[in-house]
Amino acid sequence: MGIKEELRELIEELNRVHTGGLFDGGAWHVADELPDFVTAQNGYQRHFTKKARTALRSIAETVHENDINISSRIEIGNFEKIVKQCVADLHAEGELDIVNLNKPVEAVRKLKDRIEDSLSQMQMEFTHYFPAWTLGMETEHPFELGPVTFMTREQWIDSVDFSQNAINQYLSFPENNARWKDSLKQALRNPADDEDIAGLAEPIYSAIRDCSSVLKITVKGYEINLSRKVGEIVCKSALDSISLLFEGREFFHQQALCNERLQPVRSSSIIETNGYLWLPGSSVGPRIPRLSYPQVHAFLADKSDILEVIGRILNALVDPATSKYPNLSKRWATALDWMAEGRREKNDAVALTKIASSLDVLACGGKFPGILGMLKNFTNCSEDTIVVTGSAPRTLRQVIQDIYDSGRSQILHGTHFDRLKSFEVWNGYAAYFARLALIECAVRLNKFTGVDGDKEFRTMPD
After folding, report:
1. What is the pLDDT of residues 428-440, one digit of tens each?
2. DSSP labels for 339-355?
3. Strands (DSSP E) found in 237-310
4. 71 CB neighbour count, 10 Å cutoff
5. 8 A C-beta contact, residue 396 and residue 384
6. pTM above 0.70, yes or no
7. What is the pLDDT of residues 184-230, one digit of tens each?
8. How far apart are CA 47 and CA 115, in angstroms?
9. If residue 426 lies in a helix (H) or strand (E), which one and from where to where?
10. Dihedral sign, CA of 300, 302, 306, 311?
11. Computed over its alpha carbons, how large is the radius of gyration of the chain?
């Protein structure tokens, strides 16, 4: 069924329900389910039955799927709400009556024009803040990486404020609200005293108390939910890219957004032998930072060139129209996400599949041969070059085959199902080559002059 037929069905159903009033003419049936109404701009209500909602959803999906200017700005769930409001407005105004007028093309045009007008009036610029754990590079002053600004909680508090209207009216506590910054800082310094926090400071405290830092990003051109998703992706990529430069699995645990699935800071073990308990054992996980601010600052200062390159990639994610290589930048960031998740993963087998997937994304499929070809290009090695020495030497070809064919593929296809089998060594190889590939791809992309395709990382020149 095409959009004209779907719209005809929707309007016929709206006409049926609203003939003689909703409950006066017996138009509503049990099968219609509970009334679902929208108030039109002229104040009249339009009620959507189950059948009407099905037609509406189909119309929204059709328009969303076939208009890149719409699908790139707003997700289908929120777009359907806009279409629903537009249909209600037009029907209440008598502008959608194809049953009498028999002009489906004109009706579709009217609806699309009203949708575009509604989208054009939406707020399309938002600044998002994400509480996070970092290595502390923002300790003395905010640290910027492309579109992302790293701040301590105190720096962030000093840089923002509520409107005067919010301060005057929120919970009718204008005096407490006016002191929200001082109250919040006090509660953050002394968590034991947080019971006394009140007014505007309280919800902010709940949002940021668990993390020592806040990341800031401004996103334009998207409705609020999709805007937040873009912002979250870019901020996560910013954290993961710095962890990538530091190497070391532990850095991916020490830098993360507050909603990430992370291992505990500390864990305990309880054991019994011969019918008697031992005292609980405890261990510290990889999340506690061990580098000082001077060490972090010095390291990042030495990596300023590659950080500038990564900043350009992050900018391409936020505003693709201003970048020469938005597609390759997106591919790089997705590969980084797989790598980072693999380094955070506790399960050996799952970690290997994620890190191998990072290489797969960079090479754009191609399986083992595609990844091998890409790494031959980046390392200037032949496939027969010995890259693992010792008692069991392995060539580049053998290592990549271990990672992809014997590792990732057999794990995902169920050949490896014994969870006691260790993949620690293969994980180390995979992480080494994924890190090498990600850094090489970023550096080479900065000088690249070819097309913004999908397989360019495989053969990208130095």
Report:
1. 999 999 999 999 9
2. HHHHHH-SSHHHHHHHH
3. 256-257, 266-269, 272-273, 276-277, 281-284
4. 15
5. yes
6. yes
7. 999 999 887 767 788 999 999 999 999 999 999 999 999 999 999 99
8. 19
9. helix 424-447
10. positive
11. 28
